[in-house]
Specification:
alpha+beta; 2,3-Dihydroxybiphenyl 1,2-Dioxygenase, domain 1; eight-stranded mixed beta sheet; 8 strands
Amino acid sequence: MYGEAMIDHFGINCADWDSSKTFYDKVLGVLGYSRQMDVGVAIGYGADGHPAFWIADASEGNVAGPNREVHVAFAAKDPESVQAFYQTALALGAEPLHEPRLWPEYHQNYYGAFVRDPDGNNVEAVFHGGGPERRA
């Protein structure tokens, strides 16, 4: 996997949602990035259809306790790696958020799993080539 990106995407929560949308629209726009996905309470910025940086409305319940969580998604090489990530995290005492599954609301072949790390951050492993049934 050397030469490929380790981080698939990451996101932050924003207390002033309207100001944050304006800010990131403009500062990322001058760098050549734009909104790739907008789901109302979260916006993904990037290029070529890949939202690599997300902002979320902190007032919409995207916060774990007093810590304003960060979301980081690590790129996985296959669906089995997503499953291994999830099982390893649980064995280490991580809080499960979403077990491995397809997420068609993101795209047809988005296969990911989510846990909360020891500091309360939302950590994900994602594979963009579909779930284990893709080989069937």
